[in-house]
Amino acid sequence: MRGAGAPHPRTSEPENPVLVVGDLVVEHRNRSTGEVFRAVDHVSLSIAPGASVAVVGESGSGKTTLAMAATGLGARGTGDIRLLGHSLSTIGRRELRRLRPEVQVVFQDPHGSLDPRQSVRSGLRELRALQPRRTSWIEDAELLGRVRLAPEILDRYPHQLSGGQAQRVCIARALLMRPRLIVADEPTSGLDVSVQADVLALLQEIRASTGAALLMISHDLAVVRSLCAEVHVMYRGQVVEAGPCEQVFVAPVHEYTRELLAAMPGARWRSRR
Amino acid sequence: MSELLTVSGLTVTARLAADDLRLLDAVDLELRAGQIIGVVGESGSGKTTLARAVVGLLERNVRVDQGAITLAGQTVVAPGVDRTDRIRGSAVGMVFQDASRSLNPLMKVRTQLAEVLRRHVRDITRAEVERRSVEVLAQMRITDPTRVLDSYPHQLSGGLRQRAAIGLAVVTRPALVIADECTTALDVTTQTKVVELFRTLVDELGIGLLFVTHDLMLASDLCDRIAVMSRGRVVEHGDADQVLEQPQQEYTRRLLAAIPSWS
């Protein structure tokens, strides 16, 4: 029996990476023309427990396809993916289902992630019914408190929430599962800067308090640098550069990374501070 | 030097079923030819309403209560006055966020440019239409204007599509261009190119640009002046460097503080 207050019971060796992607290739075939598009092209990466890793790149670079394949949520592709020690190519359906709650995804559009016909409370009730033991560690009101939402929000429907509130609800739903890996795919792209700052701070805090690892997908280098320790730069399906943020952003080696950095808005402002 | 665009005391209200909602509250703004003003604010601050008021594209239930908008000394908008149909598309060009929506998906770029030119330039010849269409796309730094002219919007990349849309906005040689979040949907590297293009157009053609954006950093790179909006008001308005380096208002300071630090 798990203690009610224990945020993070561990079942496997803590030093094992939560996710290992080895030489992943994902291709999409156009059904009418038969053309094959290689969305992810021989990508490898590894995420240690509690680590914060970002994948940056522009639209179409393959960053979302990579994240979805790596978490067993999208097209599988070829290559070896080990999620919490299990190989996704040999894992059985039941085992995969057991693994699912360990990986929680926060998407860009929070309103698209929430059922418009369900109040926040009833959405949480549904999650609890699916995973009664895993979710019993915290009450609804306290859970919302963790993402700095008032208990009144429980009775709201998604359309009654602002973008920032809806994203906090999504984060709360992820948190409820006590995941070991949180995948955040452009979690603040549709939000105003002040709301973005709050959501980023919240993600950081949750990572620190639960020990969950974070895989962040973003096109925003400043957001990545403020939240992640390590970054992989994707371009046309390939990781062209990877390393600690401080190294990649301060001394970029690849031409494309330099181009991305140069295109970051705010050069004039930063140069004067 | 005289102002190209003057907005003075503009107050705009939406009539809703329940009650009235003030969208703009005594907004003042000035813009000279050859200048870029960035109108910056978060969602719901009124920046788009301001942009749309200038070109007379407010919704039907929205009314100008007080104040005026003048373009080159002529009053175009005031309570009960709307002369924007004389300037929209001719003296004032518009570029919106989603280029695939500002362009007609059923028409080639060539046809759309021709339509705008014929509508706004009296007695223009077929040869002149062709010449100016090619010229404007070349101004957009499009390397193969003929290919773009012969393309439908969906056949172009996002960046090319937005450049074609900007071309459509400036082909009539407007004095003022209104751009509303027109780089928001683009990748950063493409955004940089579009922003540089705007700077060149303003410098070369001497147009005035009203650049609406939620991105304070983008505005700081591009704009000469910045107006910060919040809740329908311009809370701070001045020289871009001054607003960013010595913000006078608490709201501007908060906005700047919310930007992720880069170090």
Keywords:
heterodimer; A: 273 residues; alpha/beta; Rossmann fold; 6-stranded mixed beta sheet; 11 helices; B: alpha/beta; 2 domains; 5-stranded antiparallel beta sheet; globular; P-loop_NTPase (chain B); ATP hydrolysis activity (chain B)
Note down, in words, how this protein is organized.
Chain A: Keywords: ATP-binding, Nucleotide-binding, Transport. Chain A: It comes from Micromonospora radicis. The complex is a heterodimer of chains A (273) and B (263). The longest helix of chain A is centred in the last third of the chain and has 18 residues, at 193-210. Chain A has 273 residues and is an alpha/beta fold. Chain A has eleven helices and ten strands. In chain A, β7 (181-185), α7 (193-210) and β8 form a beta-alpha-beta unit. Helices cover 35% and strands 23% of the residues of chain A. Chain B has helices spanning 47-54, 99-102, 109-120, 126-139, 145-149, 158-170, 188-205, 216-222, 240-245, 250-257; strands at 5-15, 20-31, 36-41, 62-71, 74-78, 81-82, 92-95, 176-180, 208-213, 225-230, 233-239. Chain B has a six-stranded mixed sheet, sandwiched between helices. A five-stranded antiparallel sheet of chain B has the order 2-1-4-5-6, covered by helices on one side. The A-B interface holds A 58-59, 163, 192-194, 196-197, 200, 219-220, 222-223, 225-226, 259-260, 262-270, 272 and B 42-43, 158, 187-189, 191-192, 214-218, 220-221, 241, 244-245, 254-255, 257-262.
How many structural domains in the coordinates of chain A? 1
Binned strand content of chain A: 15-25%
Total of domains of chain B:
2
Within CATH, the superfamily of the largest domain in chain B carries the name: P-loop containing nucleotide triphosphate hydrolases
- In terms of structural class, how would the helical and strand content of chain A be classed? alpha/beta
**What best-fitting shape of chain B do the alpha-carbon axes yield?**
globular
CATH fold-level assignment of chain A: Rossmann fold
Biggest interface between protein chains, with counts per chain? A-B, 27 and 26 residues
Give the beta-strand count of chain B: 11
CATH architecture of the largest domain in chain B: 3-Layer(aba) Sandwich
N- and C-termini, Cα separation of chain B: 41 Å
What's the oligomerization state?
A: heterodimer
CATH architecture annotation of chain A: 3-Layer(aba) Sandwich
Share of residues in helices of chain A:
25-40%
Question: What's the helix count of chain A?
Answer: 11
